[in-house]
Amino acid sequence: MLRFLPKISALLDEGAAQLFPGYFAVVMATGATSIASHLLGYELIARLLLVANVLAYIALWLLTIIRLVRYPRRLMADMADHARAPGFFTLVAGTCILGSQFQVLLEWRQIAFGIWLLGTGLWVLLMYAFFMVVTTRHHKPDLAKGINGAWLLVAVSTQSVAILATLTDGSNEDSELQLFFALCMYLVGCMLYLAIIPLIFYRLTFLKLTVESLTPPYWINMGAAAITTLAGATLIARAPESSLLTSFIPFLTGFTVFFWAIASWWIPLLLGLTAWRHLFQRHRLAYDPQLWSMVFPIAMYTTGSVKLADAMELFFLMPVPMATVWLAWLAWLLTSLGMWWHFVRRLDDDSGH
Question: What's the CATH class of domain 24-60+79-281+291-352?
Fold first, then answer.
């Protein structure tokens, strides 16, 4: 066993050095799929995915810490990159979605609350560091190279903080303050989506689109709207217990349906663009960590649809998540198999040398 330790250490070091900034999308996708499974009554699947997510979260934090200590220049270079830097927001969203798993599946409020504090701290750090860096950068890329669907992770991370704040709010004197914070974060998340999506839409429709530039993070166009739907529905569900939220019910209702409609609108277009990329343009389908950015939106759309139907008693919508949860499971399974096959091949290649 000891003779494998140097090799394992080398692989960890290499993995940390080359760690994709958005790899915490694994945690986002797995957590969203787990919660969707729980809400639809598939408890065993939900619990197994929770265990897998805890292990993935620990492993990714380990690699992130190694990268921070040993390769800070690479990490800073990614943070200053317009295209790659938004991936860091998967750390915030993954953290808060894992916390939501603990609260929704196990009702471990204290642990979920602690994770929420961590997620909120990461959100403050990354949000303002990111916008300070990209705003003050001297040489900026044009719109075609500088923006993609990953930019909407700033909205996704904000809504994940809002959701966990709403879920972990307790019956204490700080209850209204925490719900007010959740409401403010929800509104900031809406603002960020509505500010960024026109730029992405312009990039898709008026600038040249190639198979190389049409990457999986464009699915976050839908995923960001889906998690905003979930955040709104979660606030609506808490409204009867809060005098603050009660006065916002008409607004929350309208905006929540608005974002669900947006998420639904994106699905056929994204399916069509994906088919164009792989079937008509014959772009080779191979494992890429960005593929987790496709799994997350499908799972989050499922979860958001369930909570919307429940919060507003729109039970005629339930066939939608009952169908899409199967797509979420399939997407998660195929992407997981692709990831592990990629890791095994890398291990074999290293062994051959």
Answer: mainly alpha
Q: What is the pTM of this model?
A: 0.94
Is 134 within 8 Å of 79 (Cβ atoms)? no
Is the Cβ–Cβ distance between 345 and 286 less than 8 Å? no
Q: Which two tokens stand for residue 5?
A: 């330790």
Whether the pLDDT of residue 318 is over 60: the answer is yes
- Residue for token pair 């750090």: 125
Where helices occur in the chain by DSSP H, the ranges are 5-17, 25-39, 43-70, 72-79, 89-101, 109-136, 143-146, 153-167, 175-206, 220-238, 243-246, 249-275, 292-311, 319-352
Contact present, 160 and 126 (Cβ < 8 Å): no
| Residue 318 backbone dihedrals phi, psi, to 5 degrees | -60, -30
| Greatest Cα-to-Cα distance within the chain, rounded to the nearest angstrom | 66
Cβ(321)–Cβ(40) below 8 Å: yes
What is the residue whose two structure tokens read 């929704």?
104
User: How many Å apart are CA 42 and CA 45, to the nearest integer?
Assistant: 6
With 0-12 CB in 10 A as exposed, 13-18 as middle and 19+ as buried, what is 222?
buried
Q: What is the DSSP letter of 85?
A: G
Tens of pLDDT, residue by residue over 230-255, are: 999 999 999 988 888 999 999 999 99
Take residue 66 and report the two structure tokens written for it: 């190694």
Query: Encoding tokens for residue 259?
Result: 């974002």
Nearest to 21 by CA among 83, 111, 96: 83
Helix, coil or strand: residue 88: helix
Cα–Cα distance measured from residue 352 to residue 320, given in angstroms and rounded to the nearest whole number: 48
Neighbours of 283 (CB within 10 A): 15
Place of tokens 């909407």: 152
**49 and 33 in contact (C-beta within 8 Å)?**
yes
Query: Using an 8 Å Cβ cutoff, are 178 and 161 in contact?
Result: no
- The DSSP output letter for 253 is H
Encode pLDDT of 29-58 as tens digits: 999 999 999 999 999 999 999 999 999 999
Query: How many CA atoms, within 13 angstroms, populate the side-chain half-sphere of residue 129?
Result: 17
